[in-house]
Amino acid sequence: MAQLARTTYRTIQRVEDGSGTSVLTLWALAVAFDFKDIDTFTKPMTIPTDEQLQAAREQFEKGYLVSKAHKPESGRCLAKLAEETLGDYIEPAGELSQDQALTFAELTDYLRDYRECAEHYSALHALRCMTNCKSS
Hints:
Radius of gyration: 23 Å
Number of strands: 0
Structural class: mainly alpha
Helix content: 55-70%
Distance between the termini: 45 Å
Number of helices: 7
Number of domains: 2
């Protein structure tokens, strides 16, 4: 955390202990957490009870369609997922390194391209088509 906020380990310890901090430290923490409002750190935060959490969960489930996510176990499963996906909600789950971001972008492009042609070709033909397109 100290490294992300570009401050010292001791400063982070003081903040965690509630010993008070400067506006500059609050600003550094806000930047590290990508907050736009440094007052986020000074406002009292309430921790919901189990009952409040359950009520919020029920309210969410009433307003949204909830489905269980399954991790694709093979390339075939990933291809089927890409083919059946109607929307385009491909987003990384967290921060990516430069290499990971490049690989993620390539996979995203591949899945989008596959989805566009999947209905016209067999899975094997689509794979050959995609392989040929990538090598040219």
